[in-house]
């Protein structure tokens, strides 16, 4: 492990006498983030049973190179050193997720104390290092036993999730003050059940729409349980990967394509959570798939249980036009009406376009739609083809430029009245990148997966400097 030098050079190349600073508000939360299945490893320890990602990653052809999260970054065994790295970076907050099958292996019944003990130790380490723990209850690792019973398309899964939320809150609620119910339910519903590129790998428009509603119901039910179990000062949140959408041309057809995708990507969550309603155009667009009778009386009252903040995950924008998508598609009810065009400009190793304006557009949209509501950027980062050079250094100037531009977009939004209270860089560590296995590196700390050696990248040193200054150099 390499100590962090928090005195990096600016990425802008400006001469010292011409530099200015973009200062962030006092108390701004400077964080980093991870997810349990992507880093923990120890897949069969302490009573943990398989999640849908354990099963999916063992299904031939689903994950690149047949990779699994069995060992990942071995964080469960190396957690104290990883917390020390965060302390050296100077981060104020750490957003982690709790593994449902490690805590409640069957998705029902009492918690396994050995599983909870890991998170107790993690929280204690974080607090001892002066870092605020931010707990996410679900980052895609549904217990396989619940999937075998029908998974998220079944209503009972939402009730099981609320029960699980209560178990974790009972164990950690005296020390964790910020809670996120779900991470990116769009991915869980539409990539997991719509086009099948994520676990559990099912391909059904109806299953995807049912899952989306039950994610909303699970969020609302868990929020009510958290309110009951946590101190009144606790912050309860939800994290969405809202899509920054742009029409290819300024035509009615392309604008309608944006509307369709906005309904099934964004408003399918925003409207039930913040307004207690389903988007009318979404219901009309998907009429050939479902009559939405799985939404029961009282559900939308539950889904709209008030929360304290909204987390936004952003990586790149999407350019949409009239046309048709490949099948199977994640865009339930819109497949025959929309197409996607690659945006111009530089791209990451994921082949995602680099465009910080999309983050600014999302943040200002939410300012206008949810006036005064607190926001957090809960994930933002980029994968590049990093490697350790012969001197053992990892130079990643593209990532530094990406982060600098996107933090600049956050600062611009704050200057224009958006209540953004924190930024969580994705990710602390190179990890298991879902269907891409270990082929993509998002971390600001390089992990040699054979030896588990951690090497701080240039981007980590750059971020440490930003935190120390409380802003960006220009």
Overview of this protein structure:
GO terms for molecular function: beta-glucosidase activity. This is Beta-glucosidase. It is built from 15 helices and 15 strands. With 474 residues, the protein is α/β, with parallel strands linked by helices. The protein has a single domain (29-473), classed as Glycosidases (TIM Barrel, Alpha-Beta Barrel). It has an eight-stranded parallel barrel. A three-stranded mixed β-sheet has the order 7-9-10, with helices on one face. Strand 11 (375-380), helix 14 (397-415) and strand 12 (420-426) form a beta-alpha-beta unit. Helix 7 (155-172) runs parallel beside helix 9 and helix 8 (185-191) runs antiparallel to helix 9. The longest helix has 25 residues, at 205-229. Mean pLDDT is 96; it is low at 6-16.
What descriptive keywords fit this protein?
474 residues, TIM Barrel, single chain, 8-stranded parallel barrel, alpha/beta, 3-stranded mixed sheet
Summarize the topology.
Elements lengths: L20 E3 L5 E5 L2 H4 L12 H6 L17 H15 L3 E5 L2 H4 L9 H16 L3 E7 L5 H5 L6 H18 L5 E6 L1 H7 L13 H25 L5 E6 L4 E3 L4 H24 L4 H6 L13 H5 L5 E5 L4 E5 L15 E4 L15 H13 L5 E6 L16 H19 L4 E7 L18 E4 L4 E4 L1 H12 L1 E3 L1
Parallel strand pairs: 2-3, 2-12, 3-4, 4-5, 5-6, 6-8, 7-9, 8-11, 11-12
Antiparallel strand pairs: 1-15, 9-10, 13-14
Enzyme class: hydrolase
EC number: 3.2.1.21
Pfam families: Glyco_hydro_1 (PF00232)
